[in-house]
Design goal:
Two copies of one chain form a homodimer. Chain A has 687 residues and is of the alpha/beta class. The first copy, chain A, has four domains: 11-40 and 50-109, Beta-grasp domain (Ubiquitin-like (UB roll)), CATH 3.10.20.30; 118-357, Domain of unknown function (DUF4445) (Nucleotidyltransferase, domain 5), CATH 3.30.420; 372-413 and 533-650 and 660-686, no CATH class; 422-526, no CATH class. Chain A contains 18 helices and 29 strands. In chain A, α8 crosses α15 (607-619). The termini of chain A are far apart. In chain A, 52% of the residues are buried.
Chain lengths: 687, 687
């Protein structure tokens, strides 16, 4: 135990954590950080050789903290730091906290963006800061040589050195090290770097890898196994920087486009599960090659890995038969987080590398949803946040720090462009943005691969490579929402055949009407069936959301997050016009891209995030929409555009919704008066 | 926490542990045992189906314990016990402690020799009682079926059931179970037996195997890997009984007869280490087949394993290069106990089976010596105990509960019959017992394979199969001791050529004389060189012992244990006459056979013995004879018979030692007067 701090000792404040304490003069800054639980990386154990423990001193008066920090309050640069600066270079203002000592009150900045020894600096889509406390730590030690008087084994002397220099109580060691330790210690001339794995605090720390001499970099991978795409980041466990990112199509697609067809494949083929497990593991292995090549690293440099995926991807990756997930009661084989060795899942990394899979929330709400939850953190804030991840199933999480609920809704593949006559995946040539003039009913649109609108000069040239080949998910949302706003379809989703007289865009197909969005080759028509397919999908999504809101006793949400690829491209306004999501301040609605990947990175870089999401998932109340009597009712109410019951006061500030043709069943007393098509047109032309 | 016991509650005393406590009437006896930490096996979790928790009530007044126990003080046999008795049979007087409740003061006997469900009952050489607290425990549970409202995974519901019924706080599970758990739970109709591994108390318990329904037996193996012989016991982890025992020659012999030649083989052959590792693991695997066949079990029934061996065997078995052990500083790669999965060492048992290797004491004092120490327990008693395990190296442990020291001495192979002109391994035809008439100098002897002495009628017929082929270790000890007692060799080990005039048994060979022990074919002569070889060996052993005694400040030992095969056959009296061991009450000198195997079984059946030997080995003071200046001095002093310095008061009560020809250097003031050859002959003829 440390002696109690003396009130006359200097006060040290660490930023950005805000942790503070008093320490006797002469205390190394690194020791102070350790005692306060401020995570400052260090590999060399205070020898001033690894350069990982850099800090900066902030000068000035910090009134709020009642502290005056000055460069005079830290020891002058000593010989060890001078040597490091000479050999490796120390950026201006930076100090090595293992060598610099406290000599007065200090405000110490722990640079969280430190990119030390970085050869490649990548800009990642999500540059959020993740405080580091990885499950794997590098520890350099000098080990006593063998001594006949104290016949401890090589491994035991290594452990003793780690206990002595790094404060471990006791350590285990991976079995494979027993055979290698002699060579490693002698190659390193009795100085080695050990990688120590400790995930849970209650776990005995474990030596999982050893290198001769000083090893100053180690990586982890964070991987999101989607049913369509597998995405991987390679991240420095020491600096947190993303060293490489890569993606690949999920090769399981050849066994079945969507999840249910893959489950069917397993049910109908004795080797189906094995083949799909092999395929996904092979793809992951190829991604490892890619990120290693990109980040100039070797597989042996990768010591930890985190994987997320929906329950079926999760099970197949682990080698578990997903058949049970194909029907009620949708029983997961394992729901809690899985910790194992990378070896166990056949991914070749460092021989001692570990693997962690986030927990699954329910049979349809997987580790990917858990990762999104971890990334967006509804449980970390007071406002009511709705997270939707739209795929063939929409995974929905709603809650705040008080309580979190989750469900999945069977949206089907319409949002992904399937079941839509002109639908296609989001790829060059696909219509992604649509505007319809409410007066003329003429459309203009943009396609993926060009920044030009279809009515702008040069559009035809710009898309000559791909043509206008179809319409993707975000385009479908927009065109149907615009058709609704332009009065082409009614609140109930019926294409108004009477308009055929006014515009050649309205055409009859069989007994119903459609809207010709593009009359090139192929001709892209939004049919009545297309509208119905989207209505079904959005009703399912909305009914799930509504059910959760009801469970929570919430009549509104404060923030909405669209996770996943689909969410990245849709315009929240149009999503709201269609009634995919409840009314909300549009500024509080945003797409969060691959939040599952971000959650995986968080779990990779900070083991406390693992406990956080494990605890959160245990607390999440799981709602199974299939057996909730109210779901069907919500579903029916949600078929209308935006829907039959809810008010959209926030949305109404941005768009003029058509008048409701029927009075709402309930709760819509606050709904704005719906204007006529003409009024709306006038209003829009102003905005 | 339990409420504090009420003084009016019945008092229950458990035997043989002597643990006691007060419990409210109606408490199941099993619960009382658990609360007191008395280990009573139970697999079914109190369902009265496994029958493992049997106890007996002792009737009568136990004055010493101030308790009167009566059969009236336990609940009458209830319907569950009646059912068990009907179906499986309950021995007279036995009760199921999960069902029988405390109704008054009780003395409860926990039968430690219980052989329940035993199909084979074997008498093992060492029938010592080992209190059971194995690292692996079987737990039967009924698991909740999947529920859409509580979408916990199968494995998670299994864990929850184990937490609920068996009081675990939290559990991990081996990775391979993730893929199997669906099938296992459904096959068992949601009732399964889980094998839980927990070695250290600080470790999270871990599910390592699962069977559908009730599984009521599980085994462990305890294996001593000797350089000559590998011996294995298969033991029930539930009852402690030895279900099978088998042995096989160590196939590494083809790479080198003794340890050093095996190390040389590794040094000279690039694949030498691998070949020897493979050979020993293959032999172990064959032994597993043997014990399974003998014990009517399957490999999957084996859940735990303990191995011991000298450092070189230990390293080769683990796949570690033993070269470092071949020269100073004799550095072990690992000295502490090794815990791993049986998979890791390539031994195919149950997929989740674990392996434990006892710690090595020093570079020449291995896990086998640790096992012997555990079995004989010098650290558990107050008297000063000497343990010697004689092989090419003698491993010597000396100590008491206060302090333990250990060393090895380079005895060389003479005791094993090598380097002796007529020497051979202990096998039929080898002379193992020798008597020499001090008057006539005529010998008589016995050979392995016959109970007859060579001067008894029928001896020639009895040994006609093998003849008298040579002399083994115990025979060499006896013949040289008898030659000394008969005056054929002097205190200094010189064969007295003058006696050639008296007896044709004394023959000249070159410049020295020898003694013809057997004049058949082959003629077996004990040469001067043979005597010298034994003198060198015994001096090394004795010098090691003396060094340890000196370190301990001990001038005598209270008990001596000979471990290993060699020790099983030698007569302690002759060992003492030759001066292999210091003087000691002959009644306190005994051979303990395969004590290493016993120690391995103890570590298998009771994990607290693992902690005990780990702690003991850490505390043992290791003496490296090679660098101890005093060793050489002791060695020189010990060359004489029995030796030059010590008194042998205990031995002198049994045999008449020849007079010392030189006055002892020191410390022999208490030595008895040495008698002349004639006096001695007269004395012996009386005894």
């Amino acid at each position: 135990m440390n002696p109690p701090p003396n009130i006359t000792d200097p006060l040290v404040l660490f930023m950005p954590s805000g942790k503070r304490g008093r320490f006797p003069k002469g205390t190394p800054v690194l020791d102070a950080a350790r005692q306060l639980g401020v995570y400052v990386e260090s590999v060399c154990g205070g020898r001033a050789t690894c350069g990982r423990c850099q800090i900066e001193v902030q000068e000035g008066q910090f009134a709020k903290h009642k502290i005056t920090s000055s460069l005079d309050h830290i020891s002058p640069v000593g010989p060890k730091e001078e040597r490091y600066d000479r050999v490796r270079g120390l950026p201006e203002g930076r100090r090595l906290s293992c060598s610099a000592t406290i000599e007065g009150d200090l405000v110490v900045d722990v640079p969280q963006d430190t990119v030390i020894n970085a050869q490649v600096v990548r800009k990642d889509a999500d540059t959020r800061h993740i405080e580091r406390m990885p499950a794997v730590q590098l520890c350099y030690v000098e080990v006593e040589e063998p001594d006949m008087h104290k016949p401890l084994g090589d491994l035991d002397r290594l452990k003793a050195a780690l206990v002595r220099d790094w404060g471990f109580d006791t350590l285990d060691a991976d079995f494979h090290l027993h055979a290698d330790i002699q060579r490693l210690l002698r190659e390193g001339n009795w100085a080695v770097t050990a990688a120590i794995h400790r995930d849970r605090d209650t776990e005995r720390p474990r030596i999982i890898a050893v290198w001769p001499g000083l090893k100053n970099e180690a990586y982890g991978i964070a991987c999101d196994i989607g049913s369509t795409t597998i995405a991987m980041h390679m991240v420095s466990l020491l600096s947190g920087r993303v060293a490489a990112s890569a993606g690949v199509s999920n090769p399981q697609i050849r066994f079945g486009e969507d999840l249910m067809s893959r489950v069917s494949y397993v049910m109908m083929n004795p080797d189906g599960r094995e083949a799909m497990t092999k395929a996904v593991r092979q793809a992951v292995s190829e991604l490892v090659d890619k990120v290693c090549a990109q980040g100039n690293a070797h597989r042996e440099d990768i010591l930890d890995s985190v994987f997320v995926g929906n329950p079926i991807m999760h099970h197949l990756f682990l080698g578990i038969d997903p058949t049970e997930l194909g029907g009620a009661p949708f029983a997961l084989a394992v729901s809690d987080a899985v910790s194992c060795r990378a070896d166990d899942i056949g991914v070749e990394l460092n021989r001692g590398a570990r693997t962690y899979l986030l927990p699954c929330i329910a049979g349809h709400v997987g580790a990917d949803a858990a990762a999104v939850t971890l990334a967006e953190g509804p449980h970390r804030q007071d406002r009511m946040m709705l997270i939707v991840d739209v795929g063939t199933n929409a995974e929905i999480v709603l809650g705040s720090s008080k309580r979190v609920v989750a469900a999945s809704s069977p949206t089907g593949p319409a949002f992904e462009g399937a079941e839509i006559s002109g639908g296609q995946r989001a790829a060059p040539g696909a219509i992604e943005r649509v505007r319809i003039d409410p007066q003329t009913l003429e459309p203009r649109f943009r396609v993926i691969g060009s920044e030009l609108w279809s009515d702008e000069p040069g559009f035809a040239d710009a898309v000559s490579g791909t043509g206008v080949s179809g319409i993707c998910g975000s385009g479908i949302i927009e065109v149907i929402a615009e058709m609704f706003l332009a009065g082409i379809i009614s609140e109930d989703g019926v294409v108004d055949g009477a308009l055929a007289a006014k515009s050649p865009r309205i055409v009859q197909t069989g007994r119903t009407f459609g809207y010709v969005l593009s009359d090139g080759e192929p001709r892209i028509t939004i049919t009545q069936n297309d509208v119905r397919a989207i209505q079904l999908a959005k009703s399912a999504l909305y009914a799930g959301t509504r059910l959760l809101m009801e469970k929570m006793g919430a009549d509104r949400v404060d923030a909405i997050r669209f996770a996943g690829a689909f969410g990245s491209f849709i315009d929240p306004k149009y999503a709201m016009v269609l009634g995919l999501i409840p009314d909300c301040d549009l500024d509080a609605v945003s797409a969060v891209g691959n939040a599952a990947g971000t959650g995986a990175r968080m779990a990779l870089l900070n083991r406390s995030h693992r406990r956080e999401i494990e605890d959160t998932v245990r607390r999440i109340e799981k709602i199974e929409t299939a057996i909730e009597p109210r779901f069907q009712e919500h579903f029916v109410n949600a078929m209308a555009l935006p829907n039959k019951v809810d008010a959209f006061p926030n949305l109404a500030r941005h768009v003029a919704l058509p008048e409701r043709t029927q009075s709402p069943d309930s709760g819509a007393s606050g709904a704005p008066r719906r204007r006529s098509r003409e009024e709306r047109a006038a209003r829009r032309s102003r905005s």
